[in-house]
Amino acid sequence: MKEVRPAERQSTEPPATIARTAARQAAEEAVDRERSRIARELHDGIATDLAAAISLFKAYMEGHPGFGKQGGPDEILADVFGILERMLKQVRETLAELRPRPIGPEGLMGDLRIQADEFARLYSIRVEISSNGTEDMLPPQQREVVYQVVREALTNVRRHSGSSICRVKMAFAAKPFMIEVSDEGRGFTATPSGGYGLVGMRERAAGIGGRLEVVSTDGRGTTVFLFGPN
Ligand SMILES: Nc1ncnc2c1ncn2[C@@H]1O[C@H](COP(=O)(O)OP(=O)(O)OP(=O)(O)O)[C@@H](O)[C@H]1O
Ligand SMILES: [Mg+2]
Asked: Which of these CATH numbers, 3.30.565.10, 3.40.50.1820, 3.60.15.10, 3.40.50.300, describes 107-227?
């Protein structure tokens, strides 16, 4: 297995400043990942169960037109129904707050360039960006998914690949749009388990009717493809 070592650091900043910035960025990323994990657990666990309980209740109510009348035998059940509805609303609000970091004022490409600059400065990983078309060719929801997928793919390159080069191709004008993030690092063969990144990217892609493909060969790098909806 060939390991690509990052090139020597080129930065003119003092090492202590670089280490502090890198530590802060790593801490922010860890917080982002943890927030996403909690959001997924809330969504797939409590929110799904509550929604199921509420729809069972509704089905029951439809079959019992006098359900929940004051002083009637179902009054307590009607109160339980109200509590369940409030709980679901609260969980949804919490989920909205846990949403991952949104695209900044620089826009998708602007944020990507800032990140590329940080990768070069802090980790000696050269990120080459190319694009065809412009980000405003994509509706906001798709742009958001592109942003989150590229962020996670870049984080994986930094954490796992050992590559000193990463290419990001943004084909906004293609139909469907296509985004590619590739490295020349150690790659992987077996489908690894335990992480949330790849699963999350797949879910995000599916959420907009698109799909994610990962091509990786042991010792020969990894490419993540994100295809937009047809
Ligand atoms: N670019 C890459 N180069 C080498 N290995 C990779 C690359 N991307 C992913 N992997 C492998 O796939 C695994 C799963 O990635 P995934 O993003 O799902 O989880 P993670 O990065 O380990 O954890 P998380 O993203 O939840 O913090 C990684 O642990 C790593 O072994
Ligand atoms: Mg990851």
From this structure: 3.30.565.10
